[in-house]
Structures are given as C-alpha cells and as structure tokens.
Amino acid sequence: MERHFDEELKNLKEKLLHMADTAQEMIGLSVKALTERDKKVTEQVFTLENKVNHAEIEIEEEVLRLLAIRQPAASDLRLLTAILKINNDLERVADQAVNIAEIAVDLLKEPQFKPLIDIPNMAKLVQNMVKGSIDAFVNHNPAMATGVCEHDDEIDLINDQIFRVLLTYMMENPKSITPAVDLILISRNLERIADHATNISEEVIFIEEGKNIKHHIQEEQQH
Amino acid sequence: MERHFDEELKNLKEKLLHMADTAQEMIGLSVKALTERDKKVTEQVFTLENKVNHAEIEIEEEVLRLLAIRQPAASDLRLLTAILKINNDLERVADQAVNIAEIAVDLLKEPQFKPLIDIPNMAKLVQNMVKGSIDAFVNHNPAMATGVCEHDDEIDLINDQIFRVLLTYMMENPKSITPAVDLILISRNLERIADHATNISEEVIFIEEGKNIKHHIQEEQQH
Q1: Which residues contact B167 (CB under 8 A, 6 or more apart)?
Q2: What is the C-alpha to C-alpha distance for residues A102 and A100, in angstroms, rounded to an integer?
C-alpha cells in the first residue's frame, strides 16, 4: 500500500507538471498573438484554458480522494495540501494568460502604435519563473525555488520601466492612451504571474525546509 | 469526540469570519485614505495586513492539524479543503487592499485632479460581496452566494465606466495621465477583490449543492 501511495503521488505530480506546461504555453501564445498581431493565436489560448480548468478539477478531486482513502501522516498531508495550493496558483496563471489574450483581441483592432520590446522579454522571464517553481517542486529543490523568488524584483523593475516608456507615448499622443493603458494592464498581468510563481516557490521552500517564509519575505519587501 | 470536532470546526469558521472582517476593513481604509487624502490611514492598512497574514497561517495550521488528527470523512474533508481555499482568497483580498494603499501613498503626493465618485461606490460594493460570500459560507446559504456571483457583472460595468471617464481626463490633460493610470489600477484591484468574493461564493455553492459550477460560469461569461 505504501508503494501504491507513492505511485499515486508521482502521478499527481506529473499531472501538475503537465498543467504547468500548458499554463506556460498559454503565456507564450497570449504574447505571441500580440507580437505577431494574429487574433487566431488568442483562440488557442481560450482552448487551452478549458484544458487547464479540467486539469484543476481533476487534480483537486484526486487530492481529496487520496486524503480520504489514504489518511496520510504529517509530511504527506503537507505535500497534498501544497499540491492543492500549487494547483490553484497554476489555474490563476492560466487566468492571467486569458486576460492578456482578451486585451490582445482589443489591441489588434487598432494599428500597432509602438514596437513591443519589454513585454515579450518580461513574458519569457515569467514563463521561466513558472517553470522553475514547478521544477523546484517536483525535484525537491529549495535552492531553485529561492532563485525564482529573487527574480520577482527584476520583474517589478521591468514593469516600472514599461510604465515609464508608455507614459511618454501617452503624453505625446492622446490617441495612444487607450492602447498604452492596455499594455500597462498586460504588464501587470505578467507581474501577477510572477507573483504566482513566487507563491509556488515559497510553498516549495516551506515544504522542503519546514518553515513559512512567505510573510517574512513580503514584510521585508513592502515596508 | 464528534461533538468536539464540531466545536473545532465552529472555531475555525469564526476565525475565518474575523479574518474576513479585517480584510473588509482594509478595503474600506485603503479607499478612505484616497477620499480623505490622509496618508496616515494607509498605515492602518499595512498594520492590519500583518494581522491577516498571521490569521492565514494560523487557520492553515489548524486545518492541517484537524486533517491529521481527525481524519475526517468525505463531507468534513470537503469543508476543510474549502476553508483552506477561502483562507487563501481572503489573504489575497487583503493583498489587493495593500496594493490600493500603496498606490494611494503615491497619489497623495500630488494634488487631487478629479473628485472620486465611482471608486468609493465600487469599494462599498466589493466590501459587500466579500461580506456576502463569507456569510453565505458560515450560514450554508447557496442562494446568497449566487447573489454575490451576480454582482460580478455590475463590477465589470463600473470598472469600464471608470476607465472611460479617466480616459477623457487623460486626453484633455497629459499631466493627469500618471494619477489617472493609478486610479485605473485601483479600479482593477477592486475588480480582483470582486473575483475573490466570487471564488468564495462558487466554493460555497459547490459545497452546498455538491457540484462544481466554477468553470461553467466562467465559460458562459467569457465566450
């Protein structure tokens, strides 16, 4: 039975990994729709969203089933709770990609007013953060998780820079205000994805090192 | 022992209710700082954030402890998982209030460029949604939870209206762009709070009616 439970946990982790891959793909596609100015690409994002939503429900049901029939002890219990949380964060990552795709649909109705440089770079960075956070989870690697958390400051700087550059466009030309605000919102969506990757990483550090660093880090950053 | 477990669940619900009160208070204070142009009020938000963060950890630990020692059957298991999720949503509501307070600190450095009408109204609405979602949970009231979900569309309309009004200010006066974008972001933060209240309400409907409406509702709204 122990071995069987290990098998079930491994299975769950693989599902989570697969869901993370899909969420990452959605981030890439939502920004690709923007850079290639191709509305059809946004439809792929909406299709993948359904996949992620189903995966979320499936993983949740499986965790509950395991909690009920295996009645796991402390450390496995902690692991299953972590899977529930990570599952939730990944679904929210996918939601943010959907938000970006929805804004892209609007943006593509008008001609492009500026070349996109920082947003595709920021998207790649946050994709890597999501990937890093899940890899850290699957491979029990708190050092990798710490690395992900450290990128969060970089994301904040890029976000700030995107805002400043767009501000100059808006000041020069009031017609650029609507699309510029759209890009600011996309940049915020990407920042949120980085936050979710950071949440996942903090969860990994918590499981692996048995301490809750979450709010300590937040307090240090904010005040 | 059964009765003791009921007592423990009741205790947990009360803690959640208390955390929800604090999160609501934070929303009110973050917007009050804006309308009364009083930076000191933002400090109250940051102080309450610590309280919410501690409550989140405490509730999480208590749920894990109960899962471990009580090894609850299906319906209680579902309830404990719901508490974990609601706990997470409430902490994120508090985070959004902190975001608003942080933007308020920036906004208060400059003179007010327009009277605030829609944002305080929107804040009251989302406070009521948070309250409604938790009341629905504590009182096993799926009809009340459905009511909360229905307000989500109204919030989207207000969010859109805020954007349009601010756009006219930005077009008339480029100096208003930075504070106007700040107000747009605050409006988005309030919209996110409404999303969390909707998540909580969907969780309540799921527990009470035993079906997962979450993604059905999303699909209907989005496509």
Answers
A1: A177, A178, A181, B180
A2: 5
Residue A110, phi-psi category: left (phi > 0), alpha (psi -120 to 50), beta (remainder): beta
* B71, B174, B219 member nearest A171 (Cβ): B174
- Calpha distance A136→A105 (Å, rounded): 34
Average pLDDT over residues A160-174: 91
Summarised one tens digit per residue, pLDDT across range A56-110 is 999 988 988 888 788 787 788 888 889 988 998 999 999 999 999 999 999 999 8
pTM: 0.82
Whole-angstrom Cα distance, residue B8 to residue B163? 46
- Find the helix packing angle between A118-138 and A142-172, rounded to 10°: 160
Q: What is the CATH number of the domain that holds B150?
A: 1.20.58.220
Q: Which of B26, B53, B54 to mutate to test the interface with A (most CBs of A within 10 A)?
A: B53
**Interchain contact, A71 vs B71, CB within 8 Å:** yes
Distance of CA B179 to the CA centre of its chain: 24
N- to C-terminal Cα separation, chain A: 49
Q: Give the nearest partner residue to A212 out of B57, B74, B188, using CB atoms.
A: B57
**What secondary structure letter does DSSP report for A19?**
H
Do residues A190 and A119 lie in contact, with contact meaning Cβ atoms separated by under 8 Å?
Answer: yes
Chain A residue nearest residue B217, CA to CA: A53
**B218 neighbourhood in chain A, CB within 8 Å:** 53
Q: How many residues does chain B have?
A: 223
Asked if A167 and B178 come within 8 Å (Cβ–Cβ), the reply is: yes
Question: Measured between beta carbons, which residues in chain A are less than 8 angstroms from residue B178?
Answer: 167
CB distance A68–B53 less than 8 Å?
A: no
Q: Which of A28, A41, A179, A42 is nearest to B223 (CA)?
A: A42
Question: Which bin fits B140, alpha (ψ -120 to 50), beta or left (φ > 0)?
Answer: left
Of the candidates B78, B181, B218, the beta carbon closest to that of A181 is on: B181
ipTM of the prediction: 0.70
What is the domain extent for residue A6?
A: 2-222
Interchain pair A170, B174: CB under 8 A: yes
Q: Rounded distance, CA B30 to CA A50, Å?
A: 35
DSSP A120: H
B175: tokens are 């100096």
How many domains in chain B? 1
Give the span between the Cα atoms of B159 and B167, in whole angstroms.
Answer: 12
